[in-house]
């Protein structure tokens, strides 16, 4: 009896929602995945057509499929011994042949344009932000725009100094000021940290971890070197360097030639069968950390 009632209720609510959603479509295209949307539509449609007990089980199966990515939202991590490399978390099933796109010293002049190009090419990336660039309203608007386009935001310190040359107090200020500002503007703290020039200290490492960020250097980058401050040679080396390997972390900057080279870099990496890894899938907190958070 209970079951029939539940099925009836389910069936009727399915009919209602099927009517509603078919017109409403999916406005929240944070991640434009037309294939997923289609499968959603057909599942509701078919449940609608056979209103018998079977539909209950059908929709349960469907739910499991949809829920799966949420149960294990992190599939990748930064290799602890080589903080440039992205690797699949042990025990998770994910593509190892990935590359991560990162853009530092943002948002200065070209970051929003770069983000737009990435969106056009359906390519995820991290933008590492210098706090000093987001003190102005203009900078804040740019950051907001990049965040709203769905990109991960990282902390690249406030004024881009060599951290080991600063006192611990100053190092803290350089990092926390930027995370606080980012949080004020986009409503969430950054999960990724990259030190200027890749120079970290023990104090920085501890601080970054405490604040729930993961340290990240890079595997290679060229857009600041003479000979590569032009789109053609830059795109070529970013794709054809011997340093490209699964898990590579590609460093680029808020520069005009990098903006221009980005579509070719994406295309070249994909031709070599690299998947561009979604930063949302990269774990920032260690398992020990999340456990202690739960018990606190
Ligand atoms: Zn930098």
Please outline what is shown here.
With 296 residues, this protein is an alpha/beta fold. It has helices at residues 2-24, 34-49, 54-71, 111-120, 137-148, 168-186, 202-210, 231-240, 256-271, 287-295, and strands at residues 76-78, 86-88, 98-106, 126-129, 152-155, 192-193, 214-215, 248-253, 275-276.
CATH architectural group: Alpha-Beta Barrel
Strand content: 5-15%
CATH homologous group name: Glycoside hydrolase/deacetylase
Largest sheet: 7 strands, parallel
CATH class: Alpha Beta
Low confidence ranges: 1-64, 66-70
* Number of H- or I-type helical stretches: 10
Give the integer mean of the pLDDT values: 82
Kindly give the count of domains.
1
Heterogens: zinc ion
**Helix fraction by DSSP (H/I, runs of at least 4):** 40-55%
């Amino acid at each position: 009896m209970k079951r029939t009632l539940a099925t009836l209720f389910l069936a009727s609510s399915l009919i209602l929602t099927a009517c509603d959603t078919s017109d409403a479509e999916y406005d929240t295209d944070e991640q434009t995945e037309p294939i997923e949307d289609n499968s959603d539509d057909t599942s509701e449609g078919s449940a609608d057509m056979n209103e018998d007990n079977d539909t209950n089980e059908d929709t349960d199966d469907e739910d499991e499929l949809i829920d799966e990515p949420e149960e294990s939202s992190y599939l990748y991590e930064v290799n602890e011994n080589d903080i440039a490399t992205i690797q699949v978390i042990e025990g998770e099933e994910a593509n190892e042949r990935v590359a991560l796109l990162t853009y530092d010293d943002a948002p200065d002049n070209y970051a929003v344009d770069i983000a737009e190009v990435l969106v056009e090419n359906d390519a995820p990336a991290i933008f590492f932000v210098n706090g000093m660039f987001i003190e102005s309203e203009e900078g804040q608007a740019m950051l907001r725009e990049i965040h709203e386009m769905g990109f991960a935001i990282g902390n690249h310190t406030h004024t881009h100094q060599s951290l080991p040359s600063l006192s611990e107090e100053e190092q803290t200020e350089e990092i926390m000021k930027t995370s606080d500002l980012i949080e004020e503007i986009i409503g969430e703290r950054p999960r990724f940290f990259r030190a200027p020039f890749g120079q970290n200290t023990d104090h920085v490492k501890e601080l970054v971890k405490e604040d729930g960020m993961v340290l990240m250097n890079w595997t290679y980058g060229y857009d600041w070197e003479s000979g590569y401050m032009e789109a053609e040679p830059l795109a070529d080396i970013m794709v054809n360097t011997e340093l490209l390997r699964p898990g590579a972390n590609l460093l680029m900057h808020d520069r005009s030639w990098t903006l221009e080279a980005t579509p070719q870099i994406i295309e070249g990496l994909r031709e070599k069968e690299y998947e561009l890894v979604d930063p949302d899938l990269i774990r920032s907190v260690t398992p020990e950390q999340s456990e202690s958070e739960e018990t606190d």
